[in-house]
Amino acid sequence: MMWLVLLLIIFAILYIYMKRSLSYWENKNVVFEKPSIIFGNFINAALRKEQLGYTLKRLYDQMDDTLPYFGVYVFHSPYLVVKSRDMIKQVLIKNFSSFINRTEYSNVDVDPFSSNVLFSLKNDIWKTTRTKLSPIFTSGKMKLMLPLMKEVTNEMDDILNEMEGKEIDVRDLSKRYSVDIISSCAFGINAGSLKDANSEMKTMVTRMLDQRGFTRSFAVFAWFFCPILVDIFRIPFIEKESSQYLAEVFKQSMKKRKENNTKRNDLIDMLNELKEEEAQNDQFEFDDIFMSAQAIAFFNAGTEGASILMTLSLYEMALNPDIQKELRKEIRQNIDTDGSLSYENLFGMEYLDLVVKETLRKYPFVQFLRRFAEKDVLIEETGLLVEKGTPVFVPLLAIHYDPKYYPNPEKFDPDRFKGDKIKDLQYVYLPFGDGPRKCIGDRFALMSAKIGLAMFLKNFEVTPGEQTEIPLKFNKAAFFLTPEKGVVFLKINKLIN
């Protein structure tokens, strides 16, 4: 009898705690969607029935269009969702110092690499690292990497000639292309993934953050929203064996570079330069783990981001032949006599830029941004006090599909960004984020995807095939944008003129 009474008391305490924790937004007079007692507003995401970005979009669409923000609960944690253009500006730029960090959690014992990447670093450590790494991604440095990318596009052209007239998985081809691009530009090696679809490098990169399996998607969810599970189950953010493999590849590449005294103007050279310039009074040193972490992050984000961008651009070109035809015309007008593209011509192609922008608008790789209030912040325009520790969502996917900013949002329309129209979309076009914490590698991702698309489409046409999925479905359990079947089939035909 005593045990029954004790059990009832425990349940009563838990119930009171849950009810109290789920009254946070009501007590602050913030509009919110009624949560479930256990999962809050994210029961579908927790049960792997809906991507978290789509959950935010659904809630965003239900709210009054005039609301600048609303509240949600992830389990029992209250999150503020910023909805208006001005509130987005407040969080990402105007009050950036109060919302400087993307995450509150890291665990160097469980995953030393993920805990040392720029994405995870906080406050002054992040500022120092960002300052040191920024010179790597200047336009001048990117220009030096272009010849390395051209070597890979030449190999891709050979592969396309072999596949001519066939229906191929452009998702796999884009992944192999991106692996070879990053391998060359980051590690200074030829991974051979275009020639060998089952190369060791490609296999390891696929394993590193494969969102189609339960383990990796659960790991990402736990690191972001339930870190106690990371502490309990010791789950690394990225797959352990593959991250250690890439760290060893990076280490050996660094060693050989020093021994041979060679220079390729790639990531290894640039990180070496930073290490040599390291000041004695720095808050940390560029040790092997820290440098490997940056290389792994560069590899992971660059491979996935650029390959999915290239894949979905090709998919939309197949569904929109008139757009594809106009893009090919521009590409051919800018090709050099030797059949390649200069850096100036690549970034001077307006229509290619519009196509890429629209692909990123319709298919953002990351579907929301997250920040944390580092102190109490009063938003004067609304009178809202955002208390210290409050997590904030910027619902990127929802904003990219808001008809107020993007009429007929389901339509693929590159002309949305033509001319000065992009100025009217400031703070509501956010494929790489915005403000001081905007993605540091956006220029590299755009360059590798753009030259890949240009070299693909200059001589080859993509059309839907028998295996092409229309509309394309995405994995509901994946944290990042991932095709549900893991494949995107299109037919490719070589053009005579």
UniProtKB/TrEMBL annotation:
An example Gene Ontology CC term for this record: endoplasmic reticulum membrane
Residue numbers binding heme: C439
Cofactor(s) recorded in Swiss-Prot or TrEMBL: heme
Coiled-coil parts of chain: 149-176, 257-287
Chief location of this protein within or outside the cell: endoplasmic reticulum
UniProt KW keywords: Coiled coil, Endoplasmic reticulum, Heme, Iron, Membrane, Metal-binding, Microsome, Monooxygenase, Oxidoreductase, Transmembrane, Transmembrane helix
Stretches that traverse the bilayer: 217-237
Membrane topology: Peripheral membrane protein
One protein family per Pfam: p450
Gene Ontology MF term list: heme binding; iron ion binding; monooxygenase activity; oxidoreductase activity, acting on paired donors, with incorporation or reduction of molecular oxygen
Subcellular location: Endoplasmic reticulum membrane; Microsome membrane
Keyword Transmembrane helix: yes
Family per similarity comment: Belongs to the cytochrome P450 family.
Protein name (Swiss-Prot/TrEMBL): Cytochrome P450
Originating species: Henosepilachna vigintioctopunctata
